[in-house]
Amino acid sequence: MPAMGALPKEIERHLQEIRELCAHNGVTKLVLLDESAPRFGGEVPDFVVEFEPDPDPLARGRRYHEVWKGLLDIVGGDLNLVVESTIENPWRQRTLEAAHYDIYAIT
Description:
Number of strands: 4
CATH topology: Beta Polymerase, domain 2
Shape: globular
Structural class: alpha+beta
Number of helices: 4
Strand content: 15-25%
CATH architecture: 2-Layer Sandwich
Number of domains: 1
Order of helices and strands: HHEEHEHE
Strand order of the largest sheet: 3-2-1-4
């Protein structure tokens, strides 16, 4: 796999704002997939997200929507937002792990 370059300028320019969005919505991990990663659909940026556990499905849905809408407002255009824990294919999971930019993570 080719070495990944720098974070895209439109993301780098709004990095602090994106990180604040994540902190406010219980995100534990947000990554932007590199062009070499498998696409989730179309020619739009693919983000993979993971949230703090919450037993309330409505709360999970609201957090997902807030992050998706917030990223749309910040980055502009359209984007794919995939919850990491929903990716069941082990090949896809390994490939995604190798081809991404770390945007936000709680350790």
